[in-house]
Design a protein that fits this description.
704 residues, mainly alpha, two-stranded antiparallel sheet, 2% strand
Length: 704
């Protein structure tokens, strides 16, 4: 059973005044006991009593029984004073921590209320927008799904930290009160000290349990208890380092090997497989936390784990023996690992693959070493568990969770070439098959590439404020675009959605390049952008993600402050629409033998790219939503056969979308001479002509 997490109501209603009174009482008690133990105003103390008892010339039974009783009793006063001091320290630390937790909660609730986000008593967040009859004509902000995700994460973090304080303090106090008839004289000097002591104790307990062997025979209840400890100790360095060092590098790898795939036909499934997925993620986060330690013991563990990558780990009497790299990479699927460790591990994995002179499928997909090591994914039937045979998959997941290192990695020519163009990826579920399924390691490559170019962890919600990037992030993005554009129609399908999100993250640059009068003048290389956009558009969902980002960039540009005639923004909008029509047509033309593109289209949900594109003001957001609705509506009509899909006829195809953009431009520029209702035709005609120009430029670039 998982540990209880505090609710908002529980934290709000926490009576710190009562705790403050208890602290005052214990401070008084601690002072009195300290005086009894070491000496009061009159000089009498347990310490004096013990000194005199030991110095006295006892005879007979007094030499044994009485002296022992007196000295033990005197020691109890000292122990009682020490425990009272520890109780005081724990209560004081808890009071300070809870005061901060309550303040953090109130600040968060107040901040979110300003964004029309309500936090309920259980800690859930919901949009709270006044109804029209209340709001009237006021400009009311409606929170996006991404804003709600970020808000929920913020509240969860505060409640989680408060729950941790409660757990640590309660456990420390229970430990002090565990002996009914004696004072142990042992206690924590502070709440932080108690946390570390508890972490080390838990790690040592489970190290001993693991050392007994036969971990595959652990009951479901015992495995759940282990997972619960991992869950609440995964960010405690005292626990994570003690566990890793205690197990040792080989012991860590053998443990997961034994637990994940016992062999002899006993591969976990059902509820146990699902629980193993939780264990795998929490153990990964624990090891990630430990990797940031620079102690000599952890430095040795990290080096030993990397050295063990080329070793094989099996069971007695079973031929199947996966490599250490395969095991460890499956323990890197969650958490932010230390950059230096990721660097050293990645170099060792690269050297091993290159040194074998075989393609990865032949190295890692060999049936004689294949095991079931990954329980984080589910198959079509919802069952947890898979081979996890390609160590590059887990490694690249770890890279994506450390965006700073991801950026650095993808700016290294040798590694970028290897990962994006040279390495042969394979379907772990069918390494020697046709490879028509999802290639897990290449899917992880896409996430790492996305992290490198954006500086964001793809698995965490974000609310961005601008399109700004560091030079290193931009270099990682353009380097990936250059390498993937060169692959043309061999562009990996697994990278389409990630590249769509990456392009949306650079939406301003994409829009300025797609709409440039001279293709050589844009911030990006026009031909590469055209090719990559085409490849992305071969998948309808990825095309939808790309259009979300591009549409937002267009509408944002329409509303931005510019010098000169606003007609420039109108023309640029049309040219980018023409560019996007061209890449869509080229994508369908490339796969014209495959009729699945239209059949796969499901009404695209707005917000899929929101994690990677900047938030805009409410007025602009309404324009973004209106534009997105228009092009989606048009897309659906095209798929339903209501409008033609003839190439080049952009103005006819995009009437609804162009009309929405024209109206948005007129609303954003009410003082322009063409913003009169009677001039709407002129605006739409100009926009349509620009779309033709964008179409012609794009087609001319590829010789169409």
């Amino acid at each position: 059973m998982a540990a209880h997490t505090m609710t908002v109501d529980e934290l709000r209603d926490l009576r710190l005044g009562t705790l403050d009174s208890a602290i005052t009482d214990w401070r008084t008690m601690s002072g009195k006991l300290e005086r009894l133990a070491t000496g009061g105003d009159d000089g009498a103390s347990a310490s004096d009593l013990a000194t005199k008892a030991n110095a006295a010339d006892w005879k007979g039974d007094n030499a044994t029984v009485t002296r022992s009783f007196v000295t033990k009793t005197a020691r109890q006063f000292s122990d009682a004073a020490a425990e009272a001091k520890s109780v005081l320290a724990i209560l004081s630390g808890a009071h300070t921590a809870f005061t901060q937790h309550k303040a953090d909660l109130q600040t968060a609730v107040d901040d979110l209320a300003k964004r029309n986000i309500y936090v309920n008593g259980k800690g859930g967040v919901v949009a709270s927008v006044p109804p029209p009859m209340v709001a009237g004509d006021a400009d009311i902000h409606e929170p996006t799904d991404t804003e709600l995700e970020v808000a929920q994460a913020r509240i969860d973090k505060i409640l989680g930290e408060a729950s941790e304080t409660d757990r640590i303090a309660a456990r420390a106090l229970r430990q002090l009160a565990s002996n009914k008839y004696d004072f142990a004289g042992e206690g924590s000097e502070s709440l932080k000290n108690a946390d570390a002591e508890q972490g080390r104790a838990d790690a040592e307990y489970w190290r001993r349990e693991i050392a007994k062997g036969h971990v595959d025979e652990w009951s479901q209840e015992k495995l759940a208890r282990f997972n619960e400890v991992l869950e609440y100790q995964k960010d405690n360095p005292a626990f994570t380092e003690t566990l890793a060092v205690g197990l040792g590098a080989d012991g860590t790898l053998q443990f997961w090997r034994d637990l994940a795939d016992p062999g002899q036909g006993h591969t976990p499934d059902g509820a146990r497989a699902k629980l193993l997925g939780d264990v795998q993620e929490n153990l990964s986060m624990s090891l990630a936390n430990a990797s940031h330690s620079n102690s000599p013991e952890m430095e040795a563990w990290k080096k030993d784990v990397i050295a063990a990558g080329s070793k094989q780990f099996g069971h007695e009497g079973i031929l199947v023996k996966p490599y250490g790299f395969q095991i460890m990479s499956n323990l890197m699927v969650k958490g932010k690992f230390d950059s230096d460790f990721l660097d050293d591990y990645g170099k060792a994995l690269y050297d091993f693959e290159k040194g074998k002179h075989y393609d990865p499928a032949s190295i890692w997909g060999n049936p004689l070493i294949a095991s079931q090591l990954d329980y984080t994914a589910q198959d079509a039937d919802g069952e947890h568990g898979g081979p996890g045979s390609d160590p590059m998959a887990g490694y690249l997941k770890a890279v994506s969770h450390n965006p700073e290192f991801a950026t650095e990695l993808f700016n290294r020519e040798e590694m970028a070439d290897y990962l994006l163009t040279e390495r042969e990826y394979y379907d772990e579920d069918d390494p020697y098959g046709k490879g028509d399924g999802t290639v897990q390691s290449r899917d992880a490559l896409g996430k790492a590439m996305l992290a490198a170019g954006t500086g964001l962890n793809p698995d965490e919600p974000h609310v961005l404020e601008s399109y700004e990037h560091t030079d290193a992030q931009r270099d990682a993005f353009t380097g990936a675009m250059n390498r993937l554009a060169a692959q043309r129609d061999d562009f990996p399908p697994e990278l389409r959605d990630d590249m769509a999100l990456l392009l949306g993250n650079y939406g301003e640059d994409v829009h300025m390049t797609a709409s440039s009068g001279d293709p050589s003048e844009g911030p990006l290389r026009y031909k590469e952008l055209l090719e990559v956009s085409k490849q992305v558009s071969r998948d309808q969902n990825s095309y939808g993600l790309l259009m979300e980002g591009v549409n937002q960039a267009i509408v944002t540009d329409i509303h931005a402050e510019h010098k000169g005639d606003p007609m420039e923004e109108l023309v640029r909008a049309g040219q980018t629409v023409g560019f996007m029509e061209t890449v869509r047509s080229q994508a369908i033309d490339t796969d014209k033998g495959d009729a699945s593109w239209p059949a796969k289209w499901g009404y695209h949900v707005i917000g899929g790219a929101a994690n990677f594109i900047p938030v805009v003001g409410d007025a602009v957001q309404r324009g973004v939503d209106a534009g997105a609705y228009a092009w989606q509506l048009e897309e659906q009509k095209r798929i339903d056969g209501e409008i033609s899909d003839a190439k080049g006829n952009n103005f006819a195809l995009r009437q609804t979308y162009l009309k929405a953009l024209a109206q948005e431009w007129m609303d954003a520029n009410p003082d322009h001479k063409w913003s009169n209702e009677d001039d709407e035709y002129l605006v739409r005609k100009e926009l349509g002509a620009a779309a033709f120009d964008g179409n012609d430029t794009a087609n001319g670039t590829v010789g169409a």
